[in-house]
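For anyone still unconvinced, we reproduce a single protein record, the chain in one-letter code, the fold tokenised, and leave readers to judge:
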Amino acid sequence: MVTLGILLTVFWKLKLRKAVLLMVFTPNSSIVKIWVSLVLAGTYQREDVPKLYNLQEVVWSILDSLV
């Protein structure tokens, strides 16, 4: 027999998984600003920016706009 607690747990996990998949970084995101500053300082190369959701794309677009 499926209880209400099990149904709520499954629903919560599915909802949480969906929320994680929709993560989007913007130019104002802290992690984007940090990676831009690290690349500009020469600590990392632009190719070192991780391919995490759209992080690399946003960082590269900012770097391209500065050149």
Q: What stands out?
A: Helices lie at 4-21, 30-40, 55-66. Residues 24-67 form one domain. The first helix runs from residue 4 to 21. The radius of gyration is 18 Å.
